[in-house]
């Protein structure tokens, strides 16, 4: 199995145009309209240095209010909240992962995109924000199992589902009892998923996570100690297990590959985001060792941020055909 090669680089498109064609967040934020969806956002909207309405993206309260507005306007989510200090992710990039996963399913199904609650997706590390299940359910009608090692996060995800009739029955929150495991002890005997997805912890240590957060704030043009009082270093928040783990992103994904290889027929596609390009060679070697029959690397971008996800399957052609006929057709 040869590692896939990324496509040749092209001239960068404007930030929003780089998003997936079905991503509803390609247009610039309409802050007056979003403030109508969530009046709490209005207090954070002001002209930036270019004279355009914006928010201070280094302010976690502003980011949270923006997310609440986006989820209400685009996904019909009336009630969304997260515990203090938990990850509050940027929604446009999260939506891209879901839409490109949908494309992957369609390509595996003769061009027809499988929709509806019979399509089951495992979100590894669903988090308190529950973003991926919200988008996947509202855009494609999929059913989700959301796993996490944090009981507080799972309860928050359950509260989001319970507070929004549009999500009724869409998400099963499941605790991973062993922090060092991913699929072991979580996937039940005979259980199958059409896809798994994961946004793994990025950093290898708390110190590395803190340094990365400082760089992020600096990139936003705001110092944690300037402006309207002292700013939190983590504008998007995050508990330690959301931000770092032993071995960092590379170690986490290698464990995921190893565990997936022990249950080759539990999912049609296993997938994971890979933030660092230098992580890819090790992932490809692990997949070759595990016996993956096909590997895909899907590139994504939002502004200057480049990302991708790797998808792999252990199914042979006859098994894939049987899967399609049984579940997607």
UniProtKB/TrEMBL annotation:
It is an enzyme of class 2 (transferase). It catalyses: adenosine(1618) in 23S rRNA + S-adenosyl-L-methionine = N(6)-methyladenosine(1618) in 23S rRNA + S-adenosyl-L-homocysteine + H(+). Keywords: Cytoplasm, Methyltransferase, rRNA processing, S-adenosyl-L-methionine, Transferase. GO terms for molecular function: 23S rRNA (adenine(1618)-N(6))-methyltransferase activity. GO terms for biological process: rRNA base methylation. Its EC number is 2.1.1.181. Residues 1-12 have a biased composition (Pro residues). Pfam families: Methyltransf_10. Residues 1-30 are annotated as: Disordered. One of its GO terms (cellular component) is cytoplasm. It comes from the Bacteria. It is found in: Cytoplasm. Its main location: cytoplasm. Belongs to the methyltransferase superfamily. METTL16/RlmF family. Specifically methylates the adenine in position 1618 of 23S rRNA. This is Ribosomal RNA large subunit methyltransferase F. It comes from Hymenobacter properus.
